[in-house]
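Subject: Interface between my chains keeps coming out wrong

I've been trying for a while to get a sensible model of this assembly. When I model each chain on its own everything looks fine, but I need the whole thing in one frame so I can look at the contacts. Pasting all components below, labels as-is. Any help appreciated, I'm running out of ideas.
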Amino acid sequence: MTTLPIEPPATQPSHAPTYTRPLLVGRNTGDRLYRAALTGLALSLPLLLLALVFELGASAWPAITRFGFRFVWTSVWDPVAGVFGAAPMIFGTIASSLLALLFAVPLALGVAIYLTEFSPKWLRQPVAFLVELLAAIPSVVYGVWGIYVLIPFLRSYVVPPLRAVLGWTPFLQGVFYGNSLLAGGVILAIMIVPYIAAVSREVLLAVPSSQREAALGMGATRWEAVWTAVVPYGRAGLIGAVILGLGRALGETMAVTMLIGNRHDIGVSVLQPAYTMAAAIANEFSEATTDLYLSALFEVGLILFVITVAVNALARLMIWRVARGTAVGSRAL
Amino acid sequence: MSARRLRRRIVSGAMTALVAALSFVAVLALVFILGYLVAKGASSLDWSFFVKNPVPAGQSGGGVANAIVGTLIIVGLAALIGLPIGIGTGLYLAEYGSGRLGWTVRFVADVLNGTPSIVVGIFAWTWLVRPMGHFSALAGSVALAVLMVPMIARTTEEMVRLVPHSLREAALALGYPRWRTSLRIVARTALAGILTGCLVGVARIAGETAPLLFTALGNLNFTTSILQPMQTLSLQIFTYGTGPFDEWHRLAWAAALVLMGLVLVLALAARWALRSRHGAAR
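Reply #2:
Try treating it as a single job with all components included. I did that and got this:
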């Protein structure tokens, strides 16, 4: 501990006379430098975002001017002829992500509800940790596991019974070779469960216990209390959690590239191969021989970026409505 | 009336069982993945796997020494670039982040947090690989650092915010300038939490593949030059896992187990760091 050092009086008059704390004038330099340094570092993030948008936009510009909106609607992808239409990738990205949500949402919400409302106390931390550990598994490891474990499992135990019951629907037509929309959707589902579960859990924990107590006090069963008083209260946050999971699924690359089959085609059957935007970039970027081809892939990247930014922004706004300002989901692991 | 009450109780019990079962399924998925990794990868882990470089396709034997060293270099360099920026941004958000700029930075960080890693990869390609004319480990590290900064920033902010105000006020009252209060009192108190955030950030980028595809590219040979293409475990797993040879698949499982082990150690260290100094824990 030191005593207050007294400033040399010479520095005092040089400053504006309106300054009210002359004793601290010299000490402000350190504070100003500190604040300036931190501000500079903090500014790097918005600048990074601007640079990202600019670089992607500039690199994609030739394709944007050449194809216009046709790029999004048409499905011909012919690098040799120099014609590019990304509709199948956009379709595949959205289809695989929605399929993933179909599996992941019940699972993740189940985990979140169980852990916050029903499970014994000693079980909460371990189970939450184990589920969040799913987020720690690298995407490429999911890919390897998917190829050698998940696909054989789907082929032997899931697809035949599924076909027997629902084989008449258009969603289950064609031969199942393994790499397919279904395989991609299932692996994506496993990958986004920890994110949705972690955010949902924080949202449910933020619901005041008076909600539960009021419902229980009126004679509701425990499930009724959860379903009528807790879940509706956190609804915006829960929807935000699901949208956040959707954002993850849309941009996921490696595991999907390894499992979805990478066929440039639009089809409704989940047993058939498909393609996603991220997979297209991963597969074709290093093979892009012409400038236009490269530019088309950049446009795919730009579209993917814009979609995920929009989805994430929406998710954050919805989560902030419930759990204001917290960094929910950013440290899911 | 009592029949209805019975039905309500049955529904409640059934739904409780259902959500418990769903939790069990989620944990089961983890057990299946980790179990297969150990079952298929552990038998290939021997001394030569860690110290030898890959052999030409078709031959048996060989290891992934180049990939292990490459992972450490690329991730280490990414941490060197990303951690100071991330921590500084986090401190800014916690100390001065109440204004409009703070809101913007916070929102941008959250949005960048969800940016697809492959997009960051091609961004790093336009920034570093295209001007330099060749792939390099440095470009890979920059891509990983870009992925890391927003996450580190947000966790640092959250951890610094947990430091009680009284501590800060006490330091200021004793005549500490604001910047020294921030660094020596506040940041130091939150150190365990910040460290946890850093470890989690490093763990997350250690397994990334997509941003490295067009930056670090991969390399069959051993190299420590950051201006050359470099192999990482994740790239090696991708090549081997999707390749045609059984020998490659065997090595892919083993490399996946090693990578998973590395990530797990970091994740567990993060938890341990938070627990051992429970001052900043939540």
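Reply #3:
Confirming on my end. Residues 216 and 225 of chain A are 6 Å apart (CA to CA).
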